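Example 3.2
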Amino acid sequence: MKSKSILVLFLLYFYNAHANSSEIYIADGEHTFVSLSYNHLSFSTQTIRFDKVSGTITLDPKTKSGKLNMVIDIPSISTGSSIFNDRIQEDDLFASRKFPTASFTADHIVFNQDVISSIPGVLTIKGISKPVEVKVNQFSCGRNFLTFQYTCGANAVAQINRSDFNLGKYTPLVGDAVTIHIVIEATQEK
């Protein structure tokens, strides 16, 4: 009977240790941005940025798994021009009155040893959802020496065609291919 009790206690400990190994991180709005770059009339590569991005990341370092849910505030776009900031919100481009947010969700995060290498997920813009793979080219976690909070950060990139999301106005004069750059810092939930 004693050995059964010890076995039950061991199984409960093992279950609790693995059940509680997930860590939730909240995106830091001051250090999380998404920018887009695209070819403009074959003259230059233009970059625009969304200043408001929020979301959560769940990581389980023991099982090397996780999930992610990010939301991009479309009206927070910053092009460097107030005229273009307004123009890009109109119905034939981002249609931000009808679709004020875009999102990226992933139920799976790919690890290479202890480092995230890619995040296959679903990007939704203007109500259109498409699979997109985000390639993570820098990832690290540690104690933030300014806030003393445990923080994870990453730089990542993805490629899309804007016409896939009903954003193809002015194609091919303005390039269809868009590179998405993601900069994120997220703080562990207490």
